[in-house]
Hints:
Blueprint: H1 2-11, H2 15-22, H3 26-34, E1 46-50, H4 56-64, E2 69-74, H5 77-86, E3 93-97, E4 109-115, H6 123-136, E5 137-150, H7 154-168, H8 174-187, E6 191-192, H9 193-203, E7 206-214, E8 217-223
Parallel strand pairs: 1-2, 1-4, 2-3, 4-5, 5-6
Antiparallel strand pairs: 5-8, 7-8
Helix pairs in contact: 3-4, 6-9
Bound molecules: S-adenosylmethionine.
Amino acid sequence: xxxxxxxxxxxxxxxxxxxxxxxxxxxxxxxxxxxxxxxxxxxxxxxxxxxxxxxxxxxxxxxxxxxxxxxxxxxxxxxxxxxxxxxxxxxxxxxxxxxxxxxxxxxxxxxxxxxxxxxxxxxxxxxxxxxxxxxxxxxxxxxxxxxxxxxxxxxxxxxxxxxxxxxxxxxxxxxxxxxxxxxxxxxxxxxxxxxxxxxxxxxxxxxxxxxxxxxxxxxxxxxx
Length: 224
Ligand SMILES: C[S@@+](CC[C@H](N)C(=O)[O-])C[C@H]1O[C@@H](n2cnc3c(N)ncnc32)[C@H](O)[C@@H]1O
């Protein structure tokens, strides 16, 4: 976890500019994530943004759900500082530096969202986190995760990887692509999508769905 924190402390300043180039259809995936929220746009809902980074998800959330209160949690103090600055004109947002594996969450959330963060923890920790998320949701509340996933076969792993690299070629040369690939290998622990859907079911979620997918990235979750 210390490596993950260090990496995001280092890239925080360039994050917003770089990630739209690194992640294919980044904005479309964030929109799909937010579209999963089943409540009226004017309702005062309580939302948790896990691994909020520089606050992209919360900014999109506050635009669509202006009366929501949002808890933003991230491991990296620098990412939280940037999020605070980006979101300074919005009301009803609280920020915490902490690890979602052991953070003492409040209860009573209507929605828990996470984007591109949970693939930094291993299978067992994901299962534990999914249970913790289930426990802090209100009945009828939802959890959706926009995340990197592992392919179920070697062939599909190659297909996913080729799609990722082809996207990188639009903005980077070979040397930089190799560097990005190595960083992903060293920092990411994606799990198979189908297994994660099963874990969600095991901890109690229903109406489980994959609402958006592009090769190695998917938006998936369910309802309590
Ligand atoms: C790729 S960024 C995604 C940021 C943002 N959610 C987005 O979609 O733009 C991943 C973020 O997850 C955070 N993160 C990773 N592991 C975490 C953990 N165990 N607890 C809290 N935050 C974590 C990192 O610090 C980083 O800011």
